[in-house]
Protein backbone atom coordinates (compact mmCIF):
# COMPACT_ATOMS: atom_id res chain seq x y z
CA UNK A 1 0.00 0.00 0.00
CA UNK A 2 1.37 3.41 -0.93
CA UNK A 3 2.17 5.64 1.98
CA UNK A 4 -0.13 8.62 2.58
CA UNK A 5 1.45 12.08 2.97
CA UNK A 6 1.50 13.30 6.52
CA UNK A 7 -0.87 16.05 7.66
CA UNK A 8 2.04 18.34 8.39
CA UNK A 9 3.39 17.79 4.88
CA UNK A 10 -0.01 18.65 3.31
CA UNK A 11 -0.33 21.82 5.41
CA UNK A 12 3.15 22.84 4.40
CA UNK A 13 2.33 22.37 0.71
CA UNK A 14 -0.87 24.41 1.09
CA UNK A 15 1.01 27.18 2.86
CA UNK A 16 3.63 27.20 0.11
CA UNK A 17 0.87 27.35 -2.49
CA UNK A 18 -0.82 30.24 -0.72
CA UNK A 19 2.53 31.98 -0.37
CA UNK A 20 3.17 31.50 -4.10
CA UNK A 21 -0.26 32.93 -4.99
CA UNK A 22 0.40 36.05 -2.94
CA UNK A 23 3.76 36.64 -4.59
CA UNK A 24 2.57 39.32 -7.02
CA UNK A 25 4.59 42.48 -7.52
CA UNK A 26 3.19 45.98 -7.26
CA UNK A 27 4.10 46.49 -10.89
CA UNK A 28 2.01 43.48 -11.88
CA UNK A 29 -0.91 44.68 -9.77
CA UNK A 30 -0.83 48.03 -11.53
CA UNK A 31 -0.67 46.36 -14.95
CA UNK A 32 -3.76 44.27 -14.17
CA UNK A 33 -5.67 47.23 -12.74
CA UNK A 34 -4.79 49.31 -15.81
CA UNK A 35 -5.95 46.47 -18.05
CA UNK A 36 -9.29 46.30 -16.22
CA UNK A 37 -9.72 50.05 -16.63
CA UNK A 38 -8.96 49.78 -20.35
CA UNK A 39 -11.39 46.86 -20.68
CA UNK A 40 -14.16 48.92 -19.07
CA UNK A 41 -13.38 51.96 -21.21
CA UNK A 42 -12.83 50.32 -24.60
CA UNK A 43 -15.84 48.01 -24.32
CA UNK A 44 -17.98 50.70 -22.68
CA UNK A 45 -18.77 48.52 -19.68
CA UNK A 46 -20.40 49.89 -16.53
CA UNK A 47 -17.96 50.35 -13.67
CA UNK A 48 -19.87 47.90 -11.48
CA UNK A 49 -18.76 45.06 -13.78
CA UNK A 50 -15.94 44.50 -11.27
CA UNK A 51 -18.54 43.52 -8.67
CA UNK A 52 -20.03 40.76 -10.83
CA UNK A 53 -19.51 37.21 -9.60
CA UNK A 54 -18.43 35.98 -13.02
CA UNK A 55 -15.78 38.70 -13.33
CA UNK A 56 -14.45 37.88 -9.86
CA UNK A 57 -14.16 34.19 -10.76
CA UNK A 58 -12.40 35.05 -14.01
CA UNK A 59 -9.81 37.20 -12.24
CA UNK A 60 -9.29 34.54 -9.59
CA UNK A 61 -8.48 32.00 -12.30
CA UNK A 62 -6.28 34.38 -14.25
CA UNK A 63 -4.29 35.78 -11.34
CA UNK A 64 -5.09 34.12 -7.98
CA UNK A 65 -2.83 36.46 -6.06
CA UNK A 66 -4.49 39.62 -7.36
CA UNK A 67 -6.99 41.28 -5.05
CA UNK A 68 -9.70 42.90 -7.14
CA UNK A 69 -10.03 46.61 -6.30
CA UNK A 70 -13.31 47.99 -5.08
CA UNK A 71 -15.62 49.81 -7.45
CA UNK A 72 -14.57 53.16 -5.98
CA UNK A 73 -10.90 52.39 -6.70
CA UNK A 74 -11.68 51.48 -10.30
CA UNK A 75 -13.67 54.70 -10.62
CA UNK A 76 -10.68 56.68 -9.36
CA UNK A 77 -8.38 54.86 -11.80
CA UNK A 78 -10.76 55.70 -14.65
CA UNK A 79 -10.73 59.34 -13.62
CA UNK A 80 -6.93 59.38 -13.59
CA UNK A 81 -6.75 57.77 -17.03
CA UNK A 82 -9.34 60.27 -18.31
CA UNK A 83 -7.31 63.16 -16.92
CA UNK A 84 -4.07 61.85 -18.46
CA UNK A 85 -5.73 61.28 -21.84
CA UNK A 86 -7.37 64.69 -21.72
CA UNK A 87 -3.92 66.24 -21.24
CA UNK A 88 -2.60 64.32 -24.23
CA UNK A 89 -5.50 65.39 -26.46
CA UNK A 90 -5.09 68.99 -25.25
CA UNK A 91 -1.41 68.88 -26.20
CA UNK A 92 -2.27 67.68 -29.70
CA UNK A 93 -4.87 70.43 -30.06
CA UNK A 94 -2.34 72.99 -28.87
CA UNK A 95 0.07 71.90 -31.60
CA UNK A 96 -2.61 72.25 -34.29
CA UNK A 97 -3.07 75.46 -36.25
CA UNK A 98 -6.85 75.20 -36.76
CA UNK A 99 -9.72 72.88 -35.93
CA UNK A 100 -13.42 72.36 -36.46
CA UNK A 101 -16.11 70.88 -34.23
CA UNK A 102 -19.11 68.66 -34.86
CA UNK A 103 -22.01 68.36 -32.47
CA UNK A 104 -25.31 66.56 -32.14
CA UNK A 105 -27.91 65.84 -29.45
CA UNK A 106 -29.19 62.35 -28.69
CA UNK A 107 -31.43 60.75 -26.11
CA UNK A 108 -30.69 57.59 -24.13
CA UNK A 109 -33.18 54.81 -23.39
CA UNK A 110 -33.65 56.48 -20.00
CA UNK A 111 -34.81 59.63 -21.87
CA UNK A 112 -31.69 61.46 -20.75
CA UNK A 113 -30.42 63.95 -23.33
CA UNK A 114 -26.72 64.31 -24.13
CA UNK A 115 -24.80 66.57 -26.49
CA UNK A 116 -21.69 65.14 -28.10
CA UNK A 117 -18.79 67.24 -29.41
CA UNK A 118 -15.91 66.07 -31.58
CA UNK A 119 -12.92 68.00 -32.94
CA UNK A 120 -11.06 67.64 -36.24
CA UNK A 121 -7.68 69.06 -37.25
CA UNK A 122 -4.72 68.41 -39.52
CA UNK A 123 -1.47 67.72 -37.70
CA UNK A 124 2.09 68.62 -38.67
CA UNK A 125 2.35 65.45 -40.74
CA UNK A 126 -0.70 66.46 -42.74
CA UNK A 127 -2.82 63.72 -41.19
CA UNK A 128 -6.48 64.30 -40.43
CA UNK A 129 -7.05 63.74 -36.72
CA UNK A 130 -10.33 63.52 -34.84
CA UNK A 131 -11.17 63.16 -31.17
CA UNK A 132 -14.25 63.09 -29.01
CA UNK A 133 -14.07 66.10 -26.68
CA UNK A 134 -17.17 65.71 -24.56
CA UNK A 135 -20.52 64.05 -24.03
CA UNK A 136 -22.42 66.62 -21.99
CA UNK A 137 -25.71 66.00 -20.21
CA UNK A 138 -28.41 68.41 -21.40
CA UNK A 139 -30.03 69.23 -18.06
CA UNK A 140 -32.01 72.23 -19.31
CA UNK A 141 -34.01 72.99 -22.45
CA UNK A 142 -32.22 72.45 -25.76
CA UNK A 143 -32.20 76.07 -26.85
CA UNK A 144 -29.69 77.49 -29.27
CA UNK A 145 -28.28 79.71 -26.54
CA UNK A 146 -27.73 76.76 -24.22
CA UNK A 147 -26.10 74.71 -26.98
CA UNK A 148 -23.77 77.63 -27.71
CA UNK A 149 -22.97 77.86 -24.00
CA UNK A 150 -22.06 74.15 -23.80
CA UNK A 151 -19.92 74.42 -26.93
CA UNK A 152 -18.10 77.31 -25.30
CA UNK A 153 -17.53 75.29 -22.13
CA UNK A 154 -16.08 72.39 -24.10
CA UNK A 155 -13.80 74.64 -26.14
CA UNK A 156 -12.58 76.38 -22.99
CA UNK A 157 -11.95 73.07 -21.18
CA UNK A 158 -9.44 72.20 -23.91
CA UNK A 159 -8.04 75.73 -24.07
CA UNK A 160 -8.92 76.13 -27.76
CA UNK A 161 -8.13 79.75 -28.71
CA UNK A 162 -10.65 81.67 -30.77
CA UNK A 163 -8.45 82.02 -33.85
CA UNK A 164 -8.28 78.21 -34.23
CA UNK A 165 -12.06 77.69 -34.28
CA UNK A 166 -12.97 77.31 -37.94
CA UNK A 167 -16.47 75.84 -38.02
CA UNK A 168 -19.15 73.94 -36.13
CA UNK A 169 -20.88 71.19 -38.13
CA UNK A 170 -24.42 70.33 -37.05
CA UNK A 171 -27.78 69.17 -38.35
CA UNK A 172 -30.51 71.43 -39.73
CA UNK A 173 -32.51 71.74 -36.52
CA UNK A 174 -33.52 75.31 -35.73
CA UNK A 175 -31.85 75.25 -32.31
CA UNK A 176 -28.56 74.17 -33.87
CA UNK A 177 -28.79 76.97 -36.44
CA UNK A 178 -29.43 79.45 -33.65
CA UNK A 179 -26.46 78.14 -31.67
CA UNK A 180 -23.95 78.98 -34.41
CA UNK A 181 -25.62 82.34 -35.01
CA UNK A 182 -25.06 82.99 -31.29
CA UNK A 183 -21.39 81.99 -31.59
CA UNK A 184 -20.87 84.40 -34.49
CA UNK A 185 -21.96 87.25 -32.21
CA UNK A 186 -19.02 86.48 -29.90
CA UNK A 187 -15.90 87.00 -32.08
CA UNK A 188 -13.79 87.59 -28.99
CA UNK A 189 -14.47 83.94 -28.09
CA UNK A 190 -15.17 82.33 -31.46
CA UNK A 191 -13.22 84.37 -34.00
CA UNK A 192 -14.58 83.95 -37.53
CA UNK A 193 -16.30 80.61 -36.89
CA UNK A 194 -18.81 79.40 -39.49
CA UNK A 195 -21.85 77.18 -39.02
CA UNK A 196 -21.93 74.25 -41.46
CA UNK A 197 -25.05 72.12 -41.99
CA UNK A 198 -24.50 68.38 -41.97
CA UNK A 199 -24.48 67.37 -45.65
CA UNK A 200 -25.91 63.95 -44.86
CA UNK A 201 -28.88 65.41 -43.02
CA UNK A 202 -29.39 68.11 -45.65
CA UNK A 203 -29.39 65.54 -48.43
CA UNK A 204 -31.89 63.49 -46.46
CA UNK A 205 -34.26 66.46 -46.31
CA UNK A 206 -33.90 66.96 -50.07
CA UNK A 207 -34.71 63.32 -50.81
CA UNK A 208 -37.59 63.19 -48.34
CA UNK A 209 -39.22 66.05 -50.24
CA UNK A 210 -38.68 64.30 -53.58
CA UNK A 211 -40.22 61.06 -52.30
CA UNK A 212 -43.46 62.75 -51.23
CA UNK A 213 -44.79 62.71 -54.77
CA UNK A 214 -48.03 60.71 -54.78
CA UNK A 215 -47.12 58.00 -57.31
CA UNK A 216 -43.75 57.44 -55.68
CA UNK A 217 -45.27 57.37 -52.20
CA UNK A 218 -47.86 54.76 -53.26
CA UNK A 219 -45.22 52.56 -54.90
CA UNK A 220 -43.00 52.63 -51.81
CA UNK A 221 -45.99 51.86 -49.61
CA UNK A 222 -46.91 48.89 -51.82
CA UNK A 223 -43.34 47.59 -51.71
CA UNK A 224 -43.32 47.97 -47.92
CA UNK A 225 -46.54 45.96 -47.61
CA UNK A 226 -45.20 43.26 -49.92
CA UNK A 227 -42.00 42.85 -47.91
CA UNK A 228 -44.03 42.94 -44.69
CA UNK A 229 -46.09 39.97 -45.92
CA UNK A 230 -42.97 37.80 -46.22
CA UNK A 231 -41.63 39.05 -42.89
CA UNK A 232 -44.85 37.99 -41.14
CA UNK A 233 -45.38 34.66 -42.95
CA UNK A 234 -42.98 31.80 -42.19
CA UNK A 235 -44.66 29.76 -44.92
CA UNK A 236 -44.04 32.46 -47.53
CA UNK A 237 -40.44 32.87 -46.42
CA UNK A 238 -39.73 29.13 -46.72
CA UNK A 239 -41.42 29.06 -50.12
CA UNK A 240 -39.32 32.02 -51.27
CA UNK A 241 -36.15 30.06 -50.53
CA UNK A 242 -37.46 27.15 -52.58
CA UNK A 243 -38.30 29.44 -55.52
CA UNK A 244 -34.85 31.07 -55.31
CA UNK A 245 -33.21 27.66 -55.67
CA UNK A 246 -35.51 26.66 -58.52
CA UNK A 247 -34.80 29.87 -60.43
CA UNK A 248 -31.10 29.98 -59.51
CA UNK A 249 -31.50 33.39 -57.86
CA UNK A 250 -29.18 34.42 -55.06
CA UNK A 251 -30.72 33.42 -51.73
CA UNK A 252 -31.12 36.79 -50.07
CA UNK A 253 -33.82 37.71 -47.59
CA UNK A 254 -36.09 40.64 -48.33
CA UNK A 255 -35.19 43.86 -46.55
CA UNK A 256 -37.73 45.97 -44.67
CA UNK A 257 -37.01 49.67 -44.75
CA UNK A 258 -37.05 52.15 -41.89
CA UNK A 259 -39.37 55.01 -42.80
CA UNK A 260 -37.01 57.68 -41.44
CA UNK A 261 -34.01 56.42 -43.44
CA UNK A 262 -34.34 57.02 -47.16
CA UNK A 263 -31.29 54.89 -47.96
CA UNK A 264 -32.98 51.88 -46.34
CA UNK A 265 -35.94 52.47 -48.67
CA UNK A 266 -33.58 52.31 -51.62
CA UNK A 267 -32.06 49.10 -50.23
CA UNK A 268 -35.56 47.61 -49.78
CA UNK A 269 -36.52 48.37 -53.39
CA UNK A 270 -33.19 47.14 -54.71
CA UNK A 271 -33.49 43.82 -52.90
CA UNK A 272 -37.12 43.43 -53.97
CA UNK A 273 -36.12 43.99 -57.61
CA UNK A 274 -33.41 41.37 -57.26
CA UNK A 275 -35.98 38.89 -55.94
CA UNK A 276 -38.85 39.96 -58.20
CA UNK A 277 -39.46 36.67 -59.98
CA UNK A 278 -39.15 34.34 -56.95
CA UNK A 279 -41.46 36.72 -55.06
CA UNK A 280 -43.98 36.74 -57.92
CA UNK A 281 -43.81 32.95 -58.13
CA UNK A 282 -44.66 32.63 -54.42
CA UNK A 283 -47.56 35.07 -54.67
CA UNK A 284 -49.02 33.35 -57.73
CA UNK A 285 -48.87 29.86 -56.18
CA UNK A 286 -52.36 29.13 -54.72
CA UNK A 287 -50.95 26.36 -52.52
CA UNK A 288 -48.82 28.95 -50.71
CA UNK A 289 -50.57 32.31 -50.93
CA UNK A 290 -54.17 33.06 -50.07
CA UNK A 291 -56.27 34.63 -52.81
CA UNK A 292 -56.56 37.92 -50.91
CA UNK A 293 -52.76 38.23 -50.54
CA UNK A 294 -52.01 37.73 -54.23
CA UNK A 295 -52.92 41.37 -54.88
CA UNK A 296 -49.84 42.39 -52.85
CA UNK A 297 -47.72 41.99 -55.97
CA UNK A 298 -46.68 45.30 -57.52
CA UNK A 299 -48.17 46.35 -60.84
CA UNK A 300 -45.97 46.48 -63.93
CA UNK A 301 -45.86 50.27 -63.67
CA UNK A 302 -44.83 50.08 -60.01
CA UNK A 303 -42.03 47.60 -60.74
CA UNK A 304 -40.77 50.01 -63.42
CA UNK A 305 -41.00 52.98 -61.08
CA UNK A 306 -39.19 51.05 -58.34
CA UNK A 307 -36.36 50.32 -60.80
CA UNK A 308 -36.16 53.99 -61.80
CA UNK A 309 -36.17 55.09 -58.16
CA UNK A 310 -33.23 52.85 -57.33
CA UNK A 311 -31.29 54.20 -60.31
CA UNK A 312 -31.86 57.77 -59.13
CA UNK A 313 -31.18 57.10 -55.45
CA UNK A 314 -28.14 54.81 -55.68
CA UNK A 315 -25.62 57.58 -56.58
CA UNK A 316 -27.04 59.65 -53.73
CA UNK A 317 -26.14 56.85 -51.33
CA UNK A 318 -22.60 56.89 -52.72
CA UNK A 319 -22.47 60.67 -52.29
CA UNK A 320 -23.59 60.35 -48.67
CA UNK A 321 -20.97 57.70 -47.96
CA UNK A 322 -18.18 59.78 -49.50
CA UNK A 323 -19.15 62.89 -47.55
CA UNK A 324 -19.45 60.90 -44.30
CA UNK A 325 -15.90 59.58 -44.36
CA UNK A 326 -14.28 60.47 -41.07
CA UNK A 327 -10.68 59.70 -41.97
CA UNK A 328 -10.53 61.70 -45.20
CA UNK A 329 -11.05 65.29 -46.29
CA UNK A 330 -14.72 65.63 -47.22
CA UNK A 331 -16.12 69.19 -47.21
CA UNK A 332 -14.05 70.24 -50.22
CA UNK A 333 -15.87 67.58 -52.27
CA UNK A 334 -19.39 68.62 -51.31
CA UNK A 335 -20.14 71.50 -53.70
CA UNK A 336 -18.27 70.09 -56.73
CA UNK A 337 -20.08 66.77 -56.30
CA UNK A 338 -23.45 68.46 -55.92
CA UNK A 339 -22.94 70.40 -59.13
CA UNK A 340 -21.87 67.20 -60.90
CA UNK A 341 -24.90 65.42 -59.49
CA UNK A 342 -27.21 68.05 -60.92
CA UNK A 343 -25.48 68.23 -64.28
CA UNK A 344 -24.71 64.58 -64.97
CA UNK A 345 -27.18 62.54 -62.94
CA UNK A 346 -30.29 64.67 -62.44
CA UNK A 347 -30.35 65.92 -66.02
CA UNK A 348 -33.86 66.17 -67.46
CA UNK A 349 -32.77 65.30 -71.00
CA UNK A 350 -33.79 61.62 -70.83
CA UNK A 351 -36.78 61.25 -73.12
CA UNK A 352 -37.97 57.86 -71.85
CA UNK A 353 -38.30 58.95 -68.22
CA UNK A 354 -41.67 58.66 -66.56
CA UNK A 355 -43.39 61.86 -65.41
CA UNK A 356 -42.90 60.76 -61.79
CA UNK A 357 -39.12 60.49 -62.18
CA UNK A 358 -38.85 63.80 -64.02
CA UNK A 359 -40.79 65.50 -61.25
CA UNK A 360 -38.61 63.81 -58.66
CA UNK A 361 -35.44 65.09 -60.34
CA UNK A 362 -36.83 68.62 -60.57
CA UNK A 363 -37.65 68.54 -56.86
CA UNK A 364 -34.17 67.27 -56.00
CA UNK A 365 -32.49 70.01 -58.03
CA UNK A 366 -34.63 72.72 -56.42
CA UNK A 367 -34.08 71.34 -52.92
CA UNK A 368 -30.31 71.05 -53.39
CA UNK A 369 -30.05 74.58 -54.74
CA UNK A 370 -32.11 76.03 -51.92
CA UNK A 371 -30.78 74.08 -48.96
CA UNK A 372 -27.11 74.51 -49.92
CA UNK A 373 -27.72 77.96 -51.37
CA UNK A 374 -25.63 76.90 -54.36
CA UNK A 375 -26.71 79.84 -56.48
CA UNK A 376 -26.19 82.46 -53.76
CA UNK A 377 -23.25 81.06 -51.80
CA UNK A 378 -20.82 83.73 -50.60
CA UNK A 379 -17.18 83.68 -51.83
CA UNK A 380 -15.92 83.36 -48.24
CA UNK A 381 -18.01 80.24 -47.61
CA UNK A 382 -15.89 77.48 -46.12
CA UNK A 383 -17.38 75.14 -48.74
CA UNK A 384 -15.86 77.13 -51.62
CA UNK A 385 -12.60 77.97 -49.84
CA UNK A 386 -11.98 74.30 -49.11
CA UNK A 387 -12.73 73.33 -52.73
CA UNK A 388 -10.27 75.93 -53.99
CA UNK A 389 -7.58 74.48 -51.71
CA UNK A 390 -8.23 70.90 -52.82
CA UNK A 391 -6.01 70.25 -55.83
CA UNK A 392 -8.72 68.11 -57.42
CA UNK A 393 -11.22 70.98 -57.59
CA UNK A 394 -9.03 74.10 -57.45
CA UNK A 395 -10.15 75.44 -60.84
CA UNK A 396 -13.75 75.70 -59.58
CA UNK A 397 -15.15 75.05 -63.03
CA UNK A 398 -18.65 74.83 -61.61
CA UNK A 399 -18.56 78.59 -60.86
CA UNK A 400 -18.82 81.61 -63.11
CA UNK A 401 -15.55 83.50 -63.76
CA UNK A 402 -16.40 86.47 -61.55
CA UNK A 403 -17.40 84.29 -58.62
CA UNK A 404 -14.37 82.08 -59.10
CA UNK A 405 -12.01 85.05 -58.88
CA UNK A 406 -13.77 86.32 -55.76
CA UNK A 407 -13.19 82.95 -54.09
CA UNK A 408 -9.50 83.05 -55.02
CA UNK A 409 -9.25 86.54 -53.55
CA UNK A 410 -10.79 85.29 -50.30
CA UNK A 411 -8.28 82.43 -50.18
CA UNK A 412 -5.40 84.89 -50.60
CA UNK A 413 -6.75 87.14 -47.84
CA UNK A 414 -7.22 84.18 -45.53
CA UNK A 415 -3.72 82.86 -46.24
CA UNK A 416 -2.12 86.25 -45.50
CA UNK A 417 -4.23 86.63 -42.36
CA UNK A 418 -3.31 83.19 -41.03
CA UNK A 419 0.35 83.68 -41.86
CA UNK A 420 0.38 86.92 -39.89
CA UNK A 421 -1.27 85.20 -36.96
CA UNK A 422 1.47 82.59 -36.81
CA UNK A 423 3.94 85.40 -36.30
CA UNK A 424 1.89 87.00 -33.52
CA UNK A 425 2.41 85.30 -30.15
CA UNK A 426 -0.05 84.59 -27.36
CA UNK A 427 -2.84 87.01 -26.62
CA UNK A 428 -2.22 89.11 -29.73
CA UNK A 429 -3.41 86.20 -31.88
CA UNK A 430 -6.77 86.18 -30.17
CA UNK A 431 -7.08 89.93 -30.65
CA UNK A 432 -6.29 89.50 -34.35
CA UNK A 433 -9.09 86.94 -34.62
CA UNK A 434 -11.77 89.30 -33.39
CA UNK A 435 -10.96 90.32 -29.82
CA UNK A 436 -10.25 93.77 -28.44
CA UNK A 437 -7.20 95.43 -29.97
CA UNK A 438 -4.39 97.14 -28.08
CA UNK A 439 -4.61 100.96 -28.19
CA UNK A 440 -2.82 102.32 -31.23
CA UNK A 441 0.46 104.12 -30.69
CA UNK A 442 0.24 107.93 -30.79
CA UNK A 443 0.50 109.30 -34.36
CA UNK A 444 4.01 110.72 -33.89
CA UNK A 445 5.33 107.39 -32.55
CA UNK A 446 3.58 105.40 -35.26
CA UNK A 447 5.01 107.66 -37.98
CA UNK A 448 8.50 107.31 -36.50
CA UNK A 449 8.21 103.51 -36.42
CA UNK A 450 7.16 103.46 -40.07
CA UNK A 451 10.07 105.74 -41.04
CA UNK A 452 12.59 103.55 -39.21
CA UNK A 453 11.13 100.42 -40.82
CA UNK A 454 11.41 102.03 -44.27
CA UNK A 455 15.02 103.08 -43.70
CA UNK A 456 16.07 99.70 -42.32
CA UNK A 457 14.42 97.55 -45.02
CA UNK A 458 16.76 95.95 -47.53
CA UNK A 459 16.14 95.15 -51.21
CA UNK A 460 16.42 91.45 -50.36
CA UNK A 461 13.64 91.75 -47.78
CA UNK A 462 11.38 93.56 -50.23
CA UNK A 463 12.03 90.99 -52.95
CA UNK A 464 11.45 88.13 -50.51
CA UNK A 465 8.16 89.67 -49.38
CA UNK A 466 6.94 90.13 -52.94
CA UNK A 467 7.93 86.65 -54.04
CA UNK A 468 6.33 84.92 -51.05
CA UNK A 469 3.05 86.83 -51.13
CA UNK A 470 -0.07 84.68 -50.95
CA UNK A 471 -1.24 86.18 -54.26
CA UNK A 472 1.95 85.03 -55.95
CA UNK A 473 1.55 81.60 -54.41
CA UNK A 474 -2.04 81.42 -55.59
CA UNK A 475 -1.02 82.27 -59.13
CA UNK A 476 1.59 79.50 -59.17
CA UNK A 477 -0.72 77.05 -57.40
CA UNK A 478 -3.40 77.40 -60.06
CA UNK A 479 -0.80 76.75 -62.78
CA UNK A 480 0.64 73.74 -60.92
CA UNK A 481 -0.01 70.50 -62.80
CA UNK A 482 1.33 68.17 -60.10
CA UNK A 483 -1.08 65.25 -59.95
CA UNK A 484 -2.92 64.18 -56.83
CA UNK A 485 -1.81 60.68 -55.86
CA UNK A 486 -3.60 59.87 -52.60
CA UNK A 487 -5.85 62.81 -51.81
CA UNK A 488 -5.40 66.49 -50.99
CA UNK A 489 -3.52 66.02 -47.71
CA UNK A 490 -0.83 63.91 -49.37
CA UNK A 491 -0.52 66.59 -52.05
CA UNK A 492 -0.10 69.34 -49.48
CA UNK A 493 2.40 67.31 -47.49
CA UNK A 494 4.52 67.04 -50.63
CA UNK A 495 4.03 70.65 -51.76
CA UNK A 496 3.51 72.79 -48.64
CA UNK A 497 7.09 74.10 -48.79
CA UNK A 498 6.36 75.52 -52.23
CA UNK A 499 3.23 77.31 -51.01
CA UNK A 500 3.90 78.09 -47.33
CA UNK A 501 1.16 80.70 -46.92
CA UNK A 502 -1.49 78.78 -48.80
CA UNK A 503 -0.57 75.77 -46.66
CA UNK A 504 -1.86 77.63 -43.59
CA UNK A 505 -5.17 78.20 -45.37
CA UNK A 506 -5.31 74.56 -46.48
CA UNK A 507 -4.99 73.29 -42.91
CA UNK A 508 -7.63 75.80 -41.86
CA UNK A 509 -10.21 74.88 -44.51
CA UNK A 510 -9.63 71.18 -45.11
CA UNK A 511 -10.09 70.18 -41.47
CA UNK A 512 -13.87 70.70 -41.64
CA UNK A 513 -15.91 67.49 -42.13
CA UNK A 514 -18.92 67.58 -44.42
CA UNK A 515 -21.23 65.86 -41.94
CA UNK A 516 -21.85 65.61 -38.21
CA UNK A 517 -21.57 61.82 -38.53
CA UNK A 518 -18.60 61.72 -36.09
CA UNK A 519 -20.89 63.03 -33.34
CA UNK A 520 -23.73 60.76 -34.42
CA UNK A 521 -21.46 57.69 -34.26
CA UNK A 522 -21.01 58.29 -30.55
CA UNK A 523 -24.65 57.31 -30.00
CA UNK A 524 -24.20 53.61 -30.62
CA UNK A 525 -21.38 53.25 -28.13
CA UNK A 526 -22.66 55.69 -25.57
CA UNK A 527 -26.12 54.19 -25.68
CA UNK A 528 -24.66 50.89 -24.58
CA UNK A 529 -23.72 52.27 -21.17
CA UNK A 530 -26.68 54.60 -20.74
CA UNK A 531 -29.61 52.21 -20.66
CA UNK A 532 -32.20 50.89 -18.29
CA UNK A 533 -29.86 48.48 -16.49
CA UNK A 534 -27.31 51.21 -15.85
CA UNK A 535 -29.55 54.06 -14.79
CA UNK A 536 -27.32 54.89 -11.82
CA UNK A 537 -24.43 55.89 -14.11
CA UNK A 538 -23.63 59.55 -13.48
CA UNK A 539 -23.40 61.90 -16.48
CA UNK A 540 -19.78 62.70 -15.62
CA UNK A 541 -18.94 59.00 -15.89
CA UNK A 542 -20.75 58.77 -19.23
CA UNK A 543 -18.54 61.61 -20.44
CA UNK A 544 -15.36 59.91 -19.20
CA UNK A 545 -16.18 56.47 -20.60
CA UNK A 546 -17.14 57.80 -24.03
CA UNK A 547 -14.01 59.99 -24.12
CA UNK A 548 -11.76 57.05 -23.22
CA UNK A 549 -13.44 54.56 -25.55
CA UNK A 550 -13.10 56.78 -28.60
CA UNK A 551 -9.70 58.32 -27.95
CA UNK A 552 -7.50 55.76 -26.18
CA UNK A 553 -6.18 54.14 -29.34
CA UNK A 554 -5.67 57.43 -31.18
CA UNK A 555 -2.85 58.84 -29.05
TrEMBL record:
Domain HAT C-terminal dimerisation: 473-552
Extent of the signal sequence: none
One Pfam family of this chain: Dimer_Tnp_hAT
GO molecular function term, any single one: protein dimerization activity
Protein species of origin: Astyanax mexicanus (Blind cave fish)
Chain segments carrying region Disordered: 420-451
Protein name as catalogued: HAT C-terminal dimerisation domain-containing protein
InterPro entries: HATC_C_dom (IPR008906), RNaseH-like_sf (IPR012337), ZnF_BED_domain_contain (IPR052035)
Amino acid sequence: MASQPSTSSTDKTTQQSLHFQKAITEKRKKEITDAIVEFIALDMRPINVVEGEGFKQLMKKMEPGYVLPKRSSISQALSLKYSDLQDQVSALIENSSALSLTTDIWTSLNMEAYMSVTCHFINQEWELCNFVLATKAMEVSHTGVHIAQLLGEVAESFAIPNYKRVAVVHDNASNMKLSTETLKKEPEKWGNVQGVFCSGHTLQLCINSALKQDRIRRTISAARNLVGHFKKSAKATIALKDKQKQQNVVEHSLTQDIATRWNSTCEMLDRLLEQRWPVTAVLSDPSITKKGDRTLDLSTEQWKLAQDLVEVLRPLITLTEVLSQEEHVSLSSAVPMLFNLKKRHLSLEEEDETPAIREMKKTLITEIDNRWQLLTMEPKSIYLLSSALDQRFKHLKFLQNDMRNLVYTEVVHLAEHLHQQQAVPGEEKEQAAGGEEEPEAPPHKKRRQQEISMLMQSDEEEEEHNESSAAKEMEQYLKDTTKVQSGPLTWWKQNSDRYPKLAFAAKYCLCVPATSTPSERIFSKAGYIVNKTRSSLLPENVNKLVFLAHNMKKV
